[in-house]
Each structure stands twice: as C-alpha cells, then as structure tokens.
Amino acid sequence: MSDRISHDLERRLRADVAGELLFDDFSRGRYATDASMYQMLPLGVVVPRNLDDVRCAIDGARVAGVPLLARGGGTSQCGQTVNNALVIDTSKFLDRIVELDVENRRCVVEPGIVLDELNHALRPHGLWFPVDVSTSSRATIGGMAGNNSGGTRSIRYGIMRDNVLSIDAILADGSDASFGSVPASAATSNDPGSLARLQRDLLNLGIREAAEIAQRFPQLMRRVGGYNIDALVPNGDTNNLAHLLVGSEGSLAYSTRIELQLAPLPRHKVLGVCHFPTFRAAMEAAQHLVKLDPTAVELIDQTMIALARDIAMYRPTIEKFVRGEPQALLLVEFAEDDHEENLRRLQQLHECVDDLGFS
Whole-angstrom distance between the N-terminal and C-terminal Cα of the chain? Predict the structure, then answer.
C-alpha cells in the first residue's frame, strides 16, 4: 500500500516541483533515521528549491491524505524527524538570511539555515543568535524553532520561544499566515478574514482556559515539552502567537520565514571548572551556583571525562583543566562586558563552592 502511495505522490509532484524528488529506496532509507533510535521509512522526500515547491508538497500531501513532515538537520534525539510521511527537507536550498537589521538586533531567515552558518554571517556585525545548541554545525533554525531548543546559555538568553519574534507560515489548507504579536483587542475583533478568525479563536481559548493553564503548567526556567498554549493567556497589551508554533514540531503550520532576536557578541569570558566527588553533589550544587548569574552552567559526568581522556584531540584539555578523578564537573561561565566583574564573579564562585564543602 505504501509503495503505491509513494508512486502516486511522486507522479503527482514530478510535473510541478523544481527541486529534488527522492522516492528511491536508498534515499528513503537515509531519511528513515535521525539522531534517535527510531527508524520509519518515509513515503518520499521533497527538497524544495523555492516556496512554490513547498506549496506543491503541501497540496500533494493533502490530496493524497498522507502526513507531512518538515525536516532540518535530523539532529533530533526523540524521533521527531522520522515518520511514514512525505518529508520536506529545506536544508539544501531554503537557507538564506532574508533580512538583517543590525541596529535593532533582529534578522529574518529561511528555515533551512544552519545555526553555525547564521552566526558566521552575523559575527562581522558583532551579533549572534544565542540559542547555542550542541549540534550547531548541523541544526537548522526551522528545526530549532519546531523543537523549542534550549542550548547551553539558556539561563541567560532564554530558549527559542524567548528569541523568536514572528513566523510566516503556510497552514494545512495551503493559505498563508503571519504569526507574531497581536493586540489583546483581537479577541473581540469583527474582522471576517480567516487569519483574524484564527487569532480571535486562539486568544479566546487562552481567556477561557487561563485558570486551568496556570494550574497545570509548571513554573520552570526551561520548559520545552508540549504545545506552548500558555502563550494564549492574556498577557498585557499583546500576545505573541508565534510562540504557539515554537515547539509544535511543525504540526500546526509550515514555517517559511522566521524572525529572530539577536544578541551582542560577548566581549569577555571566564570559565570556572568545579570538581565534585559525586554526580549527585554536582547536581545539588547547581541551584546555588546559578544565583551568581552566570551565562552558562554545564554538567559533565565521569563517563564523558573518561571518554575525552581516550580521544587524542581532547586529552590535552582534560589534562590541563581536570584535577584528580572527579565523578562530575560543573563548567560555570561568566561573560559580562566588564572583565573585572567576570573576575569578581569567578572569585564568588570559588567561595560558593568552598562554602558547599568542595574546595
């Protein structure tokens, strides 16, 4: 059955798609995996050269009644980028910086741009996109938005939700929509347009369920699971509906352009390497160390230390910074503009760890 559906899909798309169509067994096999343990053979893959190709893929999937899956670098570790679906891979062609506003520290990008490539282009302007995931050499901005990625420095800069200003998208019916800040008055708008109706319904959902959302949603520094329906709850003069798409794994709309908030590149950095005799001690200490307002706190356990010691290119670094045989490390970074302030905080870190009983 799936082979017949794949054949029909390919035939339907072949005449209209300018990009690449990958329906052979080898290509489908490559897209059947990501960085997770899951394996699911897609019906086929569209590598769109432009947005017209994306629209053709969405229309084709809708007519065929099959799922549609947007995919970036395939770095997901929980199977989000595999499915028995028609896959759209934007990482090859839809990877441009559409707009850059240095003065206001914002940019608009296509979903397929890779984080490292974006930051390479921003560096001459003294800017960067600070959601710095460990897979930055492969992860695309579209995938990071879909995943609501966090990154090492989320305690200072926030997660994707905090750094996405707006999203242009294509809905399941093929219509265009822009998601961003909308006034609270949109909840009572009489505008008959389809987007206005959608905004009205979403805001009224937030009004109706505000108490339930407040009761059920955990108040955490970094929460990245599930739909961000708390973005619909009345929040002053405006609500940013783009935050509902962030973290939705592409299940609500297909993002075509994403507007990002940028940050100045740090001028100075210092790093404290805190050693602990047990993994638990390191975990318990973190709650105290974050009170020093670092830009990052990262845990490295004994397994990672041992693996790094076995790899020639990492061994010199381990020998330089790791003393003895700790079971865990906490790497604590400070990156204030004033370098003297960084040094003061590094001294405070030393005193804090000492107070906790770990000299």
Answer: 65
Task: Note the pLDDT of residue 77.
Answer: 86
- Percent of residues, the chain, with pLDDT higher than 70: 100
**Which pair of tokens denotes residue 86?**
């028609």
Residue with tokens 């699971």: 225
What is the residue-wise DSSP string for 13-39? HHTT--SEEE-SHHHHHHTTB-SSS-B
pTM exceeds 0.85: yes
Give the single-character DSSP code of 243: H
> What are the tens digits of pLDDT across the range 166-206?
999 999 999 999 999 999 999 999 888 899 999 999 999 99
Eight-class DSSP state of 129 = -
Buried b or exposed e, range 147-179, using 16+ CB within 10 angstroms: bbbbbbbbbbbbbbbbbbbbbbbbeeeeeebeb
Question: Is residue 19 within 8 Å of 112, Cβ to Cβ?
Answer: no
Question: Tokens at residue 352, please?
Answer: 């804090």
Distance CA 225, CA 140 (A): 19
Q: Residue 16: which pLDDT band, with cuts at 50, 70 and 90?
A: very high
Phi, psi for residue 106 in degrees, rounded to 5: -145, 155
Distances (CA, A) of 71 to 89, 141, 144: 5, 11, 10
Q: Look at residues 356, 334, 358 and name the one whose alpha carbon lies nearest to residue 346.
A: 334
For the record, the structure tokens of 278 come out as 């047990």
Q: What is the rounded distance in angstroms from the CA atom of residue 107 to the CA atom of residue 123?
A: 13
Predicted confidence band at 1 (pLDDT cuts at 50, 70, 90)? Answer: low
Q: Which residues pair with 128 in a beta bridge?
A: 263
Q: Which residue has the tokens 């169509």?
A: 21
Residue 297 · residue 286 · CB < 8 Å:
yes
Q: How far apart are CA 258 and CA 10, in angstroms?
A: 29
